[in-house]
Fold:
Amino acid sequence: MAYKHVRIAGNRRQTGLALGKLARPLMATYLDQSRTWDALRPWRGHAFLDELAQQAQAALPAIWEELEGMAEGLHMPIEDVLLWNCRGDLLHSTTDGCTSVALKAADGTRWIAHNEDGDPYLRGRCHLVDVALEDAPGYLSFYYPGSLPGHTFGANRAGLVQTINNLRIRQRHPGVPRMLMARAVLDCTTLDEALGLLRDLPHSGGFHHTLGAAGDARLLSAEVAPGEVSILEIGTRYGHANHMVHADMGGIAQIVTDSSRARQNRIEGIVDGWSSATASADLLAALHDTEGELPILRTSPDDPDDENTLATAVFEIGEGEVTLRVYDRKAKAEIVLDVMSDTE
Structure:
């Protein structure tokens, strides 16, 4: 199995502490080989990082407490853990990729599926964490070592589903760091609450959020950048890679890599061919597509963005249930979880 399913429970600091301990055996080696960490280290002690810390503590004190717990569990200074969790707010381009698709089936079932693309070093070194909190619904999320859960793919016990795609924004702006924002979404109990969070808080970096929820017929595509938020309701089918494509976000400067452009074009072509008979196997086939020099399924050691597909998630969303299936580059699900009933 390429990743382990780990259960964690407690208050904010306790769950952060457990996440830090889970990552601690790997973290030093992971950062030592990371070009992203090399690029981040000059930001140590910078006034802009202090500003991001202040914004985070003021807007999301519970998430900040988790970050402090994580630093304790990692045996790392909180400043360095914050720095790592602000990588997308400080750097214009990081090794966080991803492709997401969404579908409304004829029977009312909603589907969200996602390739989690990241540092190839992390293949086989990540976890699926199942976190029970004392003051929030609790959640399941793919967990990168030392990064707050939520910025990958996840769902909470209230039935809210979120997948995240990296956006490479060419500006820096004081605000709430994007990874803390994504983590906070998993504390929301409804789509409207999540949208309120994304609209109301000031943003430092940029993410694309695909959102759905049990008992809510909507599927949503949210492009978030400093000073701008665009929310589109998905009609029947949708695909998104790693750059902004909403018409009203066209004025924001961004980096569009060759891989992101190729994957966006390819996924749009695939989903345009979907019909009401499309099912989970079709979503999985789309995300495991290998056509072209820069395919959707990313396994090349020479990937130009230094990213490989680490896991594929397929969420099935109904009226009162959410089922998550997680795959590792093959057709058989390695993990199947009923998110809302807390049973595997």
Remarks:
- Residues 27 and 145 are 7 Å apart (CA to CA).
- The radius of gyration is 18 Å.
- The longest helix spans residues 12-32.
- The mean pLDDT is 94.
